Amino acid sequence: MLEIRDLHATVAGKPILDGLTLSIPAGEVHAIMGPNGAGKSTLAYVLGGRPDYEVTGGSVLFDGVELLEREPHERAAAGLFLGFQYPVEIPGVSYLQFLRESLNAQRRARGEAELSGAEFIRLARAQAGELGMDAEMLKRPVNVGFSGGEKKRAEMVQMGIMDPRFAILDETDSGLDIDALRAVGAGINRIMRAPDKGVLLITHYQRLLDYVRPDRVHVLRAGRIERSGGAELALELEREGYVEAAA
């Protein structure tokens, strides 16, 4: 489903990704763990198409098509979703309007009919209810005044509405308390656990993986995959740390 081959990338002229290779088949959740500065968020931004992250080598195939040749909105329309470690605030734009415009833009790009206002409201309320979020909050400006947990729940509502085929979730567990972590984990499983979908879950800690069990865990260090294993590898990293686990 997602095939990353010998990927190299720089940020502000500094090499970050150094020959990263990774394959994620449809129907699987893969977790990437690693120390600070290893290139985890850089990988997420490169896949999402952030313009100031320059790819200097390699390729990324999504369903057999070169992803890196597509603009960010084209990647989204193709079914790619990027969840941020720190979701941004957008004052003056209601979350409902933002989500409706985003969804209908993707539907137009795929040649699908747009949802009416009533159809979208029903969808948004259903997704918010699944995440235990008051749908009234979606009338507020995007993420303005939201707590860390509310921002992540709202992002899961967004993912449920967009219904992507592949999700890249960059430290979704950052800043979450136990209840929010459980709700977000349940949301990921409900929306993305399917034979035709895939997830790349970037995290520092084992705790999210208690709720979203990965099929594979990869250790990213110095811009490349250093080690891979099953879900038990995350427990080893939690117990021994990255230095000891690499020894």
TrEMBL record:
Transmembrane segments: none annotated. GO terms for molecular function: ATP binding; ATP hydrolysis activity. Residues 2-247 form the ABC transporter domain. The keyword ATP-binding applies. Keywords: ATP-binding, Nucleotide-binding. It holds the Pfam family ABC_tran. Belongs to the ABC transporter superfamily. Ycf16 family. This is Fe-S cluster assembly ATPase SufC. It comes from Sphingomonas ginkgonis. The gene is sufC.
